[in-house]
Specification:
The chain has 119 residues and is α+β, with helices and mostly antiparallel strands. Helix content is 17%, strand content 30%. A hairpin with a 2-residue loop joins strand 2 and strand 3.
Amino acid sequence: MKWFYSDILQLILIWDDKGSIAFKIGEHQLSIDYNEEFNPPSRKFSIQPGWKGGTEPRIGWSLECDKENFGKIVNSVLINDITKYYNKPIWKGYWSFPILDPMNNTIEITCSCTEKIIH
């Protein structure tokens, strides 16, 4: 969990103990409590506004990035073989790159920069 959110998504770790972990996202905080009995849902993408393809009615969220961070995150996803919906970012009026986190939640990595980011 720590590796994914720190190294792949480039989020700032603000809390890490045996029972939970938390990250700063702009002015917000993402907190995750660990549960030994947690059974991740299937590795299918959730329904989410902005792109079609997700089929599961469950947790999904977006992470808006600037051009530099978007490129870093996309490269980390590709290098580390993280589950992704597209093989590369897709332009949909913004750059869209949906991925699954370790709990199989959908995270749509986005960037509103209009220039081509990934070659």
